[in-house]
Amino acid sequence: MSKSILVTGGTKGIGRAIIERFAKEGFDIYTCSRNESELLTLKQDIESRFPDQKVWVKKADLSKKEEVLGFATAVKAQGIPDVLINNTGVFLPGAIHSEQEGNFELMMETNLYSAYYLTRAFTDEWIKRKSGHIYSIGSIAGLTAYANGGSYAISKWAMLGFTKCLRQELMPYNIKVTSILPGATYTASWEGVDLPIERFIKAEDVAETVWASYNLSPFSVVEEIVIRPQLGDL
């Protein structure tokens, strides 16, 4: 029986790279995005390259609680994933005292609340199974304060705290919890920036790190992984 992975925000960047890495290893895929055409393109591409794997996609805006819960219900009708990657996120630069009104709410709802509600939707099943692995895709912005980070940094600090709490709560049930904290990763968010590509982490390297940490024995878990560009933070 194939294992499966749920990756939120799977059409681009880190999410897409993780999907490709796990599909290569025989995992069925569940994913979502706000862009339906990009989802269908992803589905067609992955299924053409990995014809034995099922790719299930659904349009959903995970900044909205009702859509998170609707997405979770739709996934459950298909099956319970073995791995959950809470990857959905949005970055809007700005200082706390002057950023645009509404930025705080949007980034907290997208970056944190989506992970909270989606994780809760599957936890009871994982506890019954006594298995599962939950990943939070955070950021070094959740470790280091920096100017112009604003509400994004707040949401990522909160995401790290959420993940640490999950680790303690689910430890007795053999459910693993890992926080991935990448630095600047070359994704669509950085398009147009006048910097050489070697100043960025490759999304594929983040995916390889996730895959490697997933493959430990049941006796070990990697709790936290910090990944930075070799030449340092931007």
TrEMBL record:
<dbReference type="InterPro" id="IPR036291">
    <property type="entry name" value="NAD(P)-bd_dom_sf"/>
</dbReference>
<comment type="similarity">
    <text>Belongs to the short-chain dehydrogenases/reductases (SDR) family.</text>
</comment>
<protein>
    <submittedName>
        <fullName>Short-chain dehydrogenase</fullName>
    </submittedName>
</protein>
<dbReference type="InterPro" id="IPR002347">
    <property type="entry name" value="SDR_fam"/>
</dbReference>
<dbReference type="InterPro" id="IPR020904">
    <property type="entry name" value="Sc_DH/Rdtase_CS"/>
</dbReference>
<dbReference type="GO" id="GO:0016491">
    <property type="term" value="F:oxidoreductase activity"/>
</dbReference>
<dbReference type="Pfam" id="PF00106">
    <property type="entry name" value="adh_short"/>
</dbReference>
<keyword id="KW-0560">Oxidoreductase</keyword>
